[in-house]
Predict the 3D structure of the following.
Amino acid sequence: MKKFYLLALAAVVTFGASARFAQTENFSVNGKKHFKSTLTELSVTETLAKPAKAPTAGATLADYEGIYTYQCEWGLSQGYAPETLELTVTDATTGEVEIAGFPQDYVVKGTLDLKAGTLSLPNMQNLGTDSNGDVNYFYLKAFKPDYSDIIAGATSAKAAVGTINGKTITFPEDEIWAIGDPRQEDLGYWFLTLANVMIYGVPDPNEGWEDWGEATFQDGWVLPAFGIDQTKTENHYKVAIQKSTVYEGTFRLVNPYYGHCPAAQYNTSKKAGYIEFDVSDPDHVYFIPQGAGFANAEIGLSEIYCFNTLTYYCIYYQMEPANVVAALGDKLKYSTYKNNVLTVPYYYDPSTNQNGEVLGWVNDACFGDQEDPVGGYWWTDENDETVSMETKIFFDATKAGVEDIAADAPAGAKEYFNLQGVRVANPSDGVYIVRQNGKATKEYIR
């Protein structure tokens, strides 16, 4: 949406001024440190969902209680958007409700009016203090008339008013929701979104995905936290892998921290988890932050989000991976997909920071947690030295089609693949992946 991206350009200018998330300090865990890297915060992607069947005539407030899939335009500045929100009716006479699931466990109050077909969330709600001791509000913001930037502070609107259609609640597209302090916006926001939509129910996590067998996983995101050397062959393990039927070149590991994982005994999570990535550009692999399904109170995790440095810069600058690569070039050492192996490197960087200190050993792998899903954390040892988080995903070499589609085709020639990535010499009616001049597109052949 044009208005959103115009705003995003302005957000880049002021993003680095935020101190809210920078207040997170290092802390020791069992002789190790879990620390916030120099990467600035990101925003996780929204989850798409299908609307549930509309309620029958005579629906009551109780019919609207439950879990909603939350959609929005995210990442206007800092903060992150939850995947789901939970609506609870607190007064059936007045229609008062509470909506939980926001950052910092904040609960936003509202009024559900089925006769008017609206959900109203009052502006300037005092939510109390956050983990940094700062007072925060749920409040509304607006664009400048030319959409070049956001107007400072809260608007004068009484409430955010969403329209109910069946069990989908849609709020005004240009209305911006914020969680922060409108008097101290230089501290940043826990939450800043627009085009907010709540859809009753949770989508099928397997919709849009097909099984792709198993991959061998050298996990650098979790194992180093428990002193397990992930680079040793005996600590590699099998994980189910799926291929997207919607986005070509996109795959995900399914429940990577259960089953054969050497750290499975430390995992207290009961949630499904995924590590999602795009190998369509094999020289610059990009990760899509998703909850990976790992929890352990001793290391302060109730969820982990696995990604790499390219992910961070893409969302920070609101740019496509190709544009980030063009802008930063060799300043980054990228994750790659070569010879059926995806590698997230651990490497030595001889350049210096602003204090003249050599950066030294650097991980392309980084992660977020439940407080800051895309915060950019690394692991260090008891001496505060960076530990290797080198990660590799070994694809089954007998599974045809993965690298073929990413590779360049002869100039002008068309090559056809089915949706499983298998080359088809004489395509009949149906949908195929067509490779021509180094680009892969999806076409319907008849």
Notes: Residues 1-56, 75-79 have pLDDT under 50 and may be disordered. Residues 408-445 form one domain. The longest helix spans residues 2-15. The chain has four helices and 30 strands.
